[in-house]
Amino acid sequence: MAIKLDDRYIKVGAPSIVWIVRSLLKVVDPVPHVLLVQEGASNRKITLSIPALRDTSIYKKIEADSPTD
Fold first, then answer.
1. Disulfide: which of 22, 39, 41, 42 matches 18 by Cβ 3.0-4.6 Å?
2. CA angle 52-34-25, nearest 5°?
3. Nearest-CA neighbor of 61 among 4, 22, 31, 44?
4. In this structure, which long-range contacts are made by residues 60-66, counting pairs with CB atoms below 8 Å and at least 24 apart in sequence?
5. Which pTM value belongs to this model?
6. CB 58 within 8 A of CB 44
């Protein structure tokens, strides 16, 4: 599954917070990373490895119009 800009994810156990992929980072680390920004709180950002984002026990991809509850 390819990860693209503007993809939306929720963290398992915290479905009320939606994270949006804002940047595919070019890092020295051999593991690719993305920059996620919290929907509705653009000052809240996290950097996460793509393997962690793909791990469905941690994060779940949601559609743009999906409810988060």
1. 39
2. 135
3. 4
4. 60/9, 60/10, 60/12, 61/1, 61/7, 61/8, 61/9, 62/8, 62/9, 62/10, 62/18, 63/8, 64/8, 66/8
5. 0.85
6. no
Q: Please, where are the H alpha helices in 1-69?
A: 50-54
Q: How far is CA 19 from CA 3, 6, 29, 30, 59, in A?
A: 13, 9, 22, 23, 10
Give the model's pLDDT for residue 27.
81
Computed on alpha carbons and rounded to an integer, the radius of gyration of the chain in Å comes to 11
User: How many Å apart are CA 11 and CA 27, to the nearest integer?
Assistant: 23
Domain spans, the chain: 8-62
User: What are the mean pLDDT values of the chain's consecutive 10-residue runs (69 residues total)?
Assistant: 93 94 91 96 96 96 71
